[in-house]
Design a protein that fits this description.
CATH class of the largest domain: Alpha Beta
CATH superfamily of the largest domain: Metal-dependent hydrolases
Largest sheet: 8 strands, parallel
CATH architecture of the largest domain: Alpha-Beta Barrel
Strand order of the largest sheet: 8-9-10-11-12-13-14-15
Bound molecules: N-(iminomethyl)-L-glutamic acid, fe (iii) ion
Radius of gyration: 21 Å
Number of helices: 16
Number of strands: 18
Distance between the termini: 37 Å
C-alpha cells in the first residue's frame, strides 16, 4: 500500500530545494559565506505535499514507489523552485510615475525630482485623494502580478499616506489583501518615508505624530509587524531616524531601515545599533556599517531593480558583505518611483548582471534568506520536509536559466500551501 498525499509534483528536470540536505527537516536559518552558493539541486526530483506542507523531496524514482496522490502536477521537464520571497515592496499607491522615469532619462536626478515636490510627494498627493476601493483594486492587481512572477510571500510597506488616516488605511488594505489573496503579506509601517508637506517646518512634530500615534496604534491593531524609516540624504537624518526607530521599538515593532542608498550617512550603523532586522539598499554603505551589521545580526536587503531603474553608477558592495558573513537577501523594492519591477526572477537576473552574484547565490538570497527576515509563520523559501508547500514550476530546463534568460516570465504554475493558485494563461486565482 502506498502512502496517500495531497499533491505530487512530478516530471521535473530539477528540483531546487535550497535546503540543508535530502531528508533533513527544514531549517529556517539563512545562509552565509560559501554556503550561499551551495544550492541543493535534485536532478529528476519530485515533491510530495500533505496538509499544506512538504512531506518529502527526492529523486522521483525513490518517491513514486512510496507515495500516491489525488492531484499530480506535471512539471513537464521544467525546473521546480521554492516560492520566491520578496522582503521589500511598496505596493499600496494610487498612480504610477513613468513621467519621472522619462525626466531622469532627460538628465533629472531622483533628488531633484523630490526637491521639486515630485517623487514620494507626488505619490502622497495621489494616495490621499484616492478612494479605498480604487486603492484596493490596484493592490490586488499588483499582487496578481507578483504571484504570476512566482512570489508567494512578501513584505509590504505603507508610506505614501504620511498621515494617520492614510497610513492606517494603507495597512488595512494590506491586511485585507493578506486575508483574501494567495500571496502572504508581512506588513511594515513606513510612515517615516518622508516628512509630509504640512510638517515641512515642523519635522519634529511629524516624528512625534509617527512615534506617539501612528506606530503605536498600527502595532496595537496588529496592522504592522515592523516599522521602517528612510534614512538618507534628502530624507530622515540619522538623529531623526534614531528617534523614529526608538519609538517603533517602544511600540513593539521589529525594525527595517532604508539605509545609505544615496549617500553614506551612517544609516547601516544606526540599523545595527538599534537591532534592526534588515538594512536595505546599502549602495553607499561604509565598511564600518557592514561590520556593525555583522555584529548585530542585521541582514542586508539588496535592491538591484532600483539601481537599474535610477541608473545609479554604483551598486551595493555585495562581495564585502558576503566576506563579512552577512546573510544577503534580494528584493524588488516594487514601487511607482524607483523600481516598477514586480518580478523576483528579473531581480535575480539583475543581481547576477549588476551585483556579480552567481545564480545559486541569487536564488538563495531570493528564497530562504529573504524568508528569514519575515515574521510569517512556518518555514518558507525552501523545499524540505516540514516547510510550507509554496513552490513554482518554471519552463526552463535548469536553474541557471534564471539570470541567463531575461525578458520572459518562465513561471508556469504556482502552488501556495499545497494548493495550485496560478497556472499560466488561466487566471485560476479568483479570490
Ligand atoms: O525604496 N528610497 C526610498 N523609498 C523608495 C522609493 C519610493 C519612491 O520614490 O516612491 C525606495 O526606493
Ligand atoms: Fe523601498
Amino acid at each position: 500500500m502506498k502512502e496517500h498525499v495531497d499533491l505530487l509534483v512530478l516530471g521535473a528536470a530539477e528540483v531546487v530545494t535550497v535546503a540543508d540536505g535530502q531528508g533533513l527537516v527544514a531549517n529556517a536559518s539563512p545562509r552565509r559565506g560559501a554556503d550561499l552558493d551551495a544550492l541543493e539541486v535534485v536532478a529528476g526530483g519530485a515533491v510530495a505535499v500533505r496538509e499544506g506542507l512538504v512531506l518529502a523531496v527526492g529523486p522521483q524514482d525513490d518517491l513514486l514507489p512510496i507515495y500516491e496522490a489525488e492531484t499530480i502536477l506535471d512539471a513537464r521537464g521544467g525546473t521546480v523552485l521554492p516560492g520566491l520571497v520578496d522582503p521589500h515592496t511598496h505596493p499600496v499607491f494610487a498612480a504610477t510615475r513613468e513621467g519621472e522615469f522619462d525626466l531622469r532619462a532627460r538628465g533629472g536626478t531622483y533628488q531633484d525630482i523630490t526637491a521639486a515636490g515630485g517623487g514620494i510627494f507626488s505619490s502622497v498627493g495621489a494616495l490621499r485623494a484616492a478612494t479605498r476601493a480604487d486603492l484596493a483594486g490596484r493592490l490586488r492587481a499588483h499582487l496578481d502580478r507578483f504571484l504570476a512572477c512566482g512570489t508567494t510571500s512578501l513584505e509590504a510597506k505603507s508610506g505614501y499616506g504620511l498621515d494617520a488616516r492614510t497610513e492606517w488605511l494603507s495597512l488595512e488594505l494590506l491586511a485585507e489583501a493578506d486575508r483574501t489573496h494567495a500571496v502572504d503579506i508581512d506588513p511594515t509601517c513606513l510612515a517615516a518615508h518622508q516628512v509630509p508637506p504640512e510638517f515641512k517646518h515642523d519635522r519634529a512634530g511629524y516624528i512625534e505624530l509617527v512615534t506617539g500615534t501612528i506606530l503605536p496604534e498600527a502595532s496595537r491593531r496588529g496592522l504592522a509587524r515592523s516599522a521602517d524609516v528612510f534614512c538618507d540624504a534628502g530624507a530622515y537624518s540619522v538623529e531623526e531616524a534614531r528617534t523614529v526607530l526608538a519609538g517603533a521599538k517602544r511600540a513593539g515593532l521589529a525594525l527595517r531601515v532604508h539605509a545609505d542608498e544615496l549617500a553614506p550617512v551612517g544609516a547601516a550603523e544606526l540599523a545595527a545599533e538599534m537591532g534592526a532586522t534588515t538594512a536595505d539598499h546599502l549602495v553607499k554603505v561604509s565598511d564600518a556599517g557592514i561590520q556593525a551589521m555583522a555584529a548585530a545580526g542585521t541582514a542586508p536587503v539588496l535592491l538591484p531593480g532600483t539601481c537599474f531603474s535610477l541608473r545609479l553608477p554604483e551598486v551595493a558592495p555585495v562581495s564585502r558583505m558576503i566576506e563579512a558573513g552577512l546573510p544577503i537577501t534580494l528584493a524588488t523594492d516594487f514601487n511607482p518611483g524607483t523600481s516598477y519591477v514586480p518580478s523576483m526572477i528579473e531581480v535575480i537576473a539583475l543581481a547576477c548582471a549588476l551585483l556579480g552574484l552567481t545564480v545559486a547565490q541569487a536564488i538563495t538570497a531570493a528564497t530562504r534568506n529573504a524568508a528569514a527576515t519575515l515574521g510569517l509563520p512556518g518555514v518558507r523559501g525552501q523545499l524540505a520536509p516540514g516547510a510550507m508547500a509554496d513552490l513554482i514550476v518554471l519552463d526552463v530546463p535548469n536553474h541557471l536559466f534564471l539570470g541567463y534568460q531575461t525578458g520572459w516570465n518562465p513561471v508556469v504554475s504556482v502552488v501556495k500551501g499545497g494548493r495550485r493558485v496560478y497556472t499560466r494563461g488561466t487566471p485560476t486565482w479568483g479570490g
